[in-house]
Amino acid sequence: MACQARLDTVPYVGLPNVPYSQCEEWCKAGTALGITDLDVCSIAWNNPVPWRKIAGDFGEGAIMEQWAGYVLVLGFGVFFSIVTTIMVKLEQIYGGLVISSEHFNTAGRNIKTGLTAAVIVSQWTWAATLLQSSNVASQYGLSGPFWYAAGATVQILLFGILAIEIKKKAPNMHTFLEMIDVRWGKQAHMTFLFFGICTNLIVTGMLLQGGAAVVNAASGMHIIAANFLIPVGVILYTWFGGLKATFLASYIHTSVIMICLVVFITYVYAVPGDIECTSATTKQCNALGSAALLWERLRFLNYLPAKTDQGIPVNSTYTMPFPDGAYVPTADDPGPGAWAPLEYVKEDYHHGPVNGNRGGSYLTMLSEGGLSFGVVNIVGNFGTVFVDQSYWQSAIAARPSSAHRGYLLGGLVWFTIPMSLATALGLSSLALNVKMPADEAGAGLAPPAAAIVLLGQGGGIMIIIMLFMAITSTGSAECIAVASLFAYDIFRKYIKPDCTGAELLKVSRLVVIGYGVVCGLFGYFLYGVGVGLGWVYNFMGTMIGSAVIPVSCCLCTRYMTKNGAIMGAWGGQILALITWISVASTRCSDGSDPDDFVASNDYPTCETGALDVNTLGNMNAQTAGSLVALCVSGIIAFVVAAIEYKSGKEQPFEWETMREGIKRVEQVKDELPEFEMTAEYLDPAAKYVFKYGVGYSVFLIFIWPLAVIAWGVFDKANYTLWASIAYCWGYIGSLVIVVLPVYESWGSLKNVLTCTKPAPEAKE
Known about the structure:
67% of the residues lie in helices and 1% in strands. With 764 residues, the chain is an all-alpha fold. A two-stranded antiparallel sheet has the order 1-2. The model has no long low-confidence stretch (mean pLDDT 83).
């Protein structure tokens, strides 16, 4: 073992804060744990790595000057606004594009497979995708990233079924509320308008929460300022180009995110760093370089005893209290660097077993907390896909030959972002022994912390760039979604039914600006009440999950009535909220379950009955609320519908009514081959997407996790296989999503590059 060579060296060669006796104890433990490659004495485990100090610490723990944060937020916003606007303008000149209200909200209904998939990846890559996925990795180990990825991929795969149904049954629709209005009338329309707007607000709130927290941590920019400034760039290019500008920007954003992802997973699994962890030096090792070393670090981390409030390890003879500082490496001297005085508390440590995990290990899929999160994730994300107008809008914009393939490809590529990134950076934030209290992890700071320790300040900046790409692309999609709802389902429906296309375009653009302001105010509200990104993410299923089944039934079955849909949505939500609050009232005041309560200075005993941010954010409470929302709403809806059909009050719906009932304001002919809209083409496409959408979903949610249960706590070989799958998936997904849209649109790109205006009959 590498540490034994260190001990055998005379004189002893060790880190300044790892004495010989401590190294000897750790080395014996490492040998017993089967650690062969890692020199466990090359890391000062008692001194968690202060990642902010490594990045420079520009006051208040920031990693860059405050002015740099403002330049980054506003500069990137303006830059992408200019680039996207130029791209739309070039398409107007060389592609014959005309920005009408129809095109502003549907992008011409002619988007190809590659761009559709890139847009899905971009829209589904929230701030939470990059941040919360790594947070659950730091909480539950490797099961967290898997359940985040799998639990939020199935909705995209299954939504592909609805994407084809739109082409078959509602080819003229602009919003999902139009089909609800035609089928069920005003009361249902108003009901699901409420759920739709709630969904958009929740998604946007999470985007701003995650973005503002990271920008604040990185530069010291005030969170309130970040909440209002981040949407500025989004408003600019969305206002000008509408949905097509959003799609073009989404491709750029997706490409940047995937390139950064490849860099990070390569650094974690393939780059050993300046100081390798397998040799005896006096310098701290803050590198990885292989899945085997990551496994050994996590294995040893679980061995180390947890800390008490006084810093003394639990059940250990080792009595050293919290250290008073750490050696901080710098760019010029990667190791040990200067001694920095630091204050430690027990929350800065991740030592010891994980409650609810098999063997207390981070390296297992048998995790109670991970499974509970998976349930919340699956249920909650059904709401944020099936009740979010932006996903319906993407399906509307896709051409019939691309809709089903685009959603399947987009879902499978998106899977790699939380799976590969969080498996790498989320677990690295643990393995690198980063100073990361739970509140920082909950705010989404695990990825920048790990990135900074691995790559220095540049790693943190890359995370901010990825985050900004995610926020702006999804934010733009949400802006267009809300603009469409207001234009078609409020202005056209209730204010001016005979409006012109020009009036709808004006309303859409005004709403884009107004919603940008509302976004900032809502982000400020969430900041004011003190709820974090993870809290809101877990809560969304309770709030909007009850609308999923009624909305899906509107397009998938003739046997759902107006009263069934309305009562299912409202009844499911009310019962979900009651369940959530009831379970929360039985949790300890620190937010933990009574069985898992650990006394501390702030919470010496488990007191129940309180309803606050801590108890209402309890995972079991939010799991219960989410399950009731999704399941009970469906039961209510089908029972009411069955009673009405049995009594003869309702008759099965005729799909022709929907096809004929939704009208376009501007009768613009879609530039599509006529055969793509025929039943002969769409019926096989529907069978294809059903077979593969359901098949992939069953594989991800049931077959894959069941197959690895027998692995128990992963040994080194099993974890290396797991990491290799995530690594390869990341590379392949990145290559496909970056190259395919360019390949499919090469004709249009060639026209732009050669300044060739196509003949009218050749326009795409």
